[in-house]
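Fold this complex.
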Amino acid sequence: MTVHDRPRVVIVGAGFGGLWAARTLAASPVEVLLVDRNNYHTFLPLLYQIAAAELETEEIAYPTRSILRKLPNVHFLMADVKRVDLVARRVEGDGVVIPYDFLILALGSTSHFFGVPGAAQYAFPLRTLEQGIALRNHILSSCERVVHEPEADKRRRMLTFVIVGGGPTGVEFAGALAELIRGPLVKDYPLPDFQEVQVILLEAVDSLLPGLPERLRRYTLTRLRKMGVEVRLEARVSQVTALAVHLQDGTVIPTDTVVWTAGVRGDPAAKAWGLPTTQGGQVAVLHTLQVPNYPEVYIVGDLAYIEGGERPLPMVAPVAIQQGVRAARNIRRQLAGQDPLPFRYRDRGTMVTIGRNAAVSHLGGWACTGFLAWVLWLSVHLFNLIGFRNRLFVLINWAWDYFFFERAARLILPLGTARGSESVQSVSSKSGALQT
Amino acid sequence: MTVHDRPRVVIVGAGFGGLWAARTLAASPVEVLLVDRNNYHTFLPLLYQIAAAELETEEIAYPTRSILRKLPNVHFLMADVKRVDLVARRVEGDGVVIPYDFLILALGSTSHFFGVPGAAQYAFPLRTLEQGIALRNHILSSCERVVHEPEADKRRRMLTFVIVGGGPTGVEFAGALAELIRGPLVKDYPLPDFQEVQVILLEAVDSLLPGLPERLRRYTLTRLRKMGVEVRLEARVSQVTALAVHLQDGTVIPTDTVVWTAGVRGDPAAKAWGLPTTQGGQVAVLHTLQVPNYPEVYIVGDLAYIEGGERPLPMVAPVAIQQGVRAARNIRRQLAGQDPLPFRYRDRGTMVTIGRNAAVSHLGGWACTGFLAWVLWLSVHLFNLIGFRNRLFVLINWAWDYFFFERAARLILPLGTARGSESVQSVSSKSGALQT
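Structure:
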């Protein structure tokens, strides 16, 4: 693995940034090694549908090797990178040491709890496949436990679901959760308690989806409330405990389930490896995406912070994809003796789905709501999924849910829970769901 | 939950026996409570396809509540039953105490290691959904680890897969595994080592599939060998270690993967709860499936051993289904003041698939092999799956695999491993697959 004639490009992270960088380097005179701790690429924009029991795990994930199969100069290594040595130019982890000529770090991001006490410990993050499954398990288990819980207070807490953060993920998950519980679940649990389910969405500022045009924000708010989501604006969380979420105005909402979608920060590994990071855990890079003083090292995706940019770029898939492509092209330019070019983000717009027949989209200055926006959202996400089979299965599942008011993916799978600061505790399979 | 006018039938276990008993009691003047530790019913005959990366978890499991939705007198409780008190007539577990008028125990079975040293600790059982996923994770992780393993001995061990037991499960899994590795995996790992993969099937007696006609047994053996499975007959395992499987004749086969399909015994909970059990962990019952001295308690499925029967019944789904129906009907007879009837097994035959276009079937004395048997096998299994959507997805996956020589379900999911005597250890998500 260390003998090579052509320059070697090591890419750490097989998310959107890393994968598109690898694809862009496919026909170039380099050896590419893509490293990830998982053997699959996750389509994170649909992760909330895993948590809402709409889609199955395999449908939003795709084996990385299969994606790369037809790219002869691109190889894959499943390994957990433990260290990057920028001076010696090598990546280390799981007993392997990989020297590189060029490095692209595409580590992505983790939840940002802004130091709110208890949030890292008790709130459910929603950033990885296993966190999505753990949240789904917790929600479905709560519904099962209600059935044999004698105390009314506890039953109420089990059926109160609080989502922190009124950005796209918070809005999408709140809508999907409301539809899950008020639709398919109520059918299956013929208990009066299920009429009292509460889905509460907390947003710190005075509007949902800040940044979108006023009309879309208003539509989103009205629509969510019509769906039975209790939206509380200017509600700032001061503490999360095992039994409640506390707001700065003194309100206490008893709940077993706090979902944290309020913040995102660069993967902490970057800091641990000695890279200079911003307050948000990102690595400051040049406009060319290169790390200052290390022209052979690029940062792309959620981890990248472009110094001196007009305003910080959103931490979303399109930015990561475009940066992955840019970094790859810049490496090709360097190899050809040319200067790397600065990254320019082409913002194609924003789409957020709320529920059945309801979404907002803001594309190229054109705002649209309702059924049309919803169909647009579905089409764009379906089109961008990797793999024909996955697209087919997602399409069938969506159609199924739509026509039969059902949810397909309702198993409480024997997984470790991912509650608490991205760390994973595990539960015994036999009674795990009931002990959580 | 304790107030009821109609007699209450409690059924423990939502496998084939328990589920069919519940369905049979649907229109009867009883309240039925079906209790299971999982919220889904698993279609175990296809479990080996989970382990062989052919099917996705959700496709062979179905939420129990949804199955029961249209049966108004049948309720479901997700709970881990910890104790059954036959004298006080109640079931206890997870903080609930459930009195019953009639009880049907359908606990099923676990792997039987026959006291072979190390087997319970190091071999992979294949009896539950999570064991299926854990085995798949282990196999796919082994293939990933080979890529960066410098020592040839270790690489060879990682690519040697030993299956113990030449019954239907062992044969089906050996065939599926050989096709997985020599087909889709070889395409994705362009390494010489992958040409040296060994799939070894060990059977203690002198034939595979004992009990089937000679012609079918011979066909199975020839076919498996043609597919590259190394079948060793009269190979008795004397020990399993972390690094090898030892045979009684002194042979040592270095391997990281021993799959145990050689034996099955009644769920040990029955013994722990004080029920009198046989050597095989089953509970001896009357011909009517009632427990001696407890006419209101029935045992069905793998846990039941009918005293004085001509020969022990196989521990398979059709027996469990027919016994579930019989127990339910006998309870109805008791309520009507009639005597319970003895159970009679209607053996419809055996089908075992070996691989692409290859299966054996023995139905009503009619033996058949090859493509026809294979199509029969596919049809029967598809028809018996629960849920139209599951059937559709399984059909698509099978067609996909068949036409594209692919395998659909190849994610190494963040699950606990189930290696070692049905117990579950857990791994950290971040590097779990590599530490297993």
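Residues 416-436 of chain B have pLDDT under 50 and may be disordered.
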